Amino acid sequence: MSIALAVAVALLxxxxxALAVGGRHPVTPFLVPLATAAMAAVAAVVMLAxxxxxxxWFAIVAVGCNVAAVTAIPAALVSDRTPGPAWWPWASLAxxxxxxxxxxxxxxxxxxxxxxxxxxxxxxAMISGGHSTLVADLTNTGYLFSHPDYPPLxxxxxxxxxxxxxxxxDHLALAATVSLNACVVGVAATGLLSRVPATTTWIRRTAxxxxxxxxxxxxxxVTGADALNGYADLLYAGAGLGAVIYGLLLPRSPRHLAVxxxxxxxxxxxxxxxxxxxxxVAVLVIARQQRxxxxxxxxxxxxxxxxxxxxxxxxxxxxxxxGLSDSFFASSSGETLDTRLSATVSQMSNQLRLVxxxxxxxxxxxxxxxxxxxxxxxxxxRWLWTGGIVYTLGIAATYVIGSPEINWWLNTSVVRTTxxxxxxxxxxxxxxxxxxxxxxxxxxxxxxxxxxxxxAAGGWGSDALSRASAGRPSE
Amino acid sequence: xxxxxxxRRSRGIGLAVLAGTVxxxxxxxxxxxxHVTYDDAQQAQQYSTLLSQFYCLQDAIRAExxxxxxxxxxxxxxxxxxxxxxxxxxxxGSAQDARWHLFLVNPGPCDxxxxxxxxxx
Lengths: 475, 121
Description:
- The complex is a heterodimer.
- By secondary structure, chain A is mostly helical.
- Chain A has one domain (3-76, 91-326, 335-469).
- Chain A is 72% helix and 0% strand.
- Chain A has helices spanning 3-11, 15-22, 28-49, 54-79, 87-101, 114-128, 131-138, 153-165, 170-193, 202-223, 233-249, 254-268, 272-289, 296-307, 310-321, 337-351, 355-375, 381-401, 406-417, 419-439, 452-457, 462-469.
- In chain A, α1 (3-11) crosses α8 (153-165), α3 (28-49) crosses α8 (153-165) and α18 packs antiparallel against α20 (419-439).
- Chain A is globular, with a radius of gyration of 22 Å.
- Chain A starts with a helix and ends in a 6-residue tail after the last helix.
- Chain B is α/β, with parallel strands linked by helices.
- A 4-stranded mixed beta sheet of chain B has the order 2-1-3-4.
- Chain B has helices spanning 5-64, 79-85; strands at 70-72, 91-92, 100-110, 113-119.
- The termini of chain B are far apart.
- Chain B is rod-shaped.
- Chain B has one domain.
- In chain B, 55% of the residues lie in helices and 19% in strands.
- Chains A and B meet through α6, α7, α10, α17 and α20 of A and α1, α2 and β2 of B.
């Protein structure tokens, strides 16, 4: 089967679930591969827990998700549309597709770095061998170097493509990982563009598109070569970022919560650091959703965010039940905590140089644009900053209490473990400038009909409120 | 825009600082993306060669070692690479359990390398 056909067949199962989650919005095309990847990962978890092959479990999971999606799609398609002129969603989609795909041009040839070969492609082969092969190989001490405890999303997608294509194809699996990286950046970028008010002029809209184009390229920039060589760090970090944007910055709505939940599932199923990211963001999302007067259904839907973490948590439990654990904590370090802490602080602060400009923008934005940001329905910066700070402290603690030689460990990983924090800073800065572009000298056109605080603080259905605020009737 | 001229000027300066800081920060990162993408494109041929060597060595192992064998891959720096090469065909095992001992040798037909399988014991 040709590569193009294999990719198409592997993506088909994700179309309806993506539509059910994203509705008729520019984010939906980016959710299609992510939905397929999430289903493949869940199938791998079930396969590890039971028996059989990935394809069989994927078919079962995909049918179940598609049946559920069919019932949810009518509401998702009718409930809300992107505010603004008819061309805006298409311009948003085209811009973000261009922004996230131009770095992928290098994929004409495979660029496979050590870890992608030794971890993800190796695990993809193991998963493609079915339950017995996977259990035997993961528990084989000869494969301890491959971090057998790592979650299954990336290798499950590779194994699914192998099955569809009928052969192991490392180049294809690598291209899939890099494409998923692009999709999570696309989810984040389209989320920000969705807050451009309906009455914004085309010149301002064009400026917003350019800004988000710049942001997408900049997220690749803080990731560096690891966005393109089969590493999965941008995938979990970008998924975490998507969850931050849809769960913490955009107005509260079931659709935004659904996109955030899918992103959380992706992050938790991609890497152990992704699980850390997902737990932190999920707690913040649930906390932000809590309001007095919420009905039981709304409370349950909010708690549903936590369900997104369940497949990743089950994987971790099974892996630990099999006697496997994170090799970074397998032994004790010979270095003192002081040595490890000072090396960690030094290297991480060197990597997080965006903090200073982001603080400057935060201060200027808070002083000048706070109310406008609220009127546009973009949540308070404190949520995003809290997530980034807690995540960074968690990663720093991992370095300090882990066992590998600290300088080697930091040198080989700190660029990747700080992607989420750096990209969060970029998103917050971009959000402030987006607000400035949309409202500068145009306060009258974007003035809300309701008090400023209600839109951003929002309640369920505040999407509609934001549309009304932007001068367009709710649909 | 409302307020006194001083207030408007302060606001203008503040917004200019905000816009300049965001644009500069994102542009520096974007420049790194351009740089990395260009570098990767230059190195792509090297990675292509490595991948074709990987498949060549995998074929060589499959020609020498029966499927399902337990193989001793303890071969110094090449141990990890050999473990990756035998996946889905053979299983890494200790010297006591293994039926075969696998080595990487050179020169060979796979871009200068080859594998040699020796029966254990």
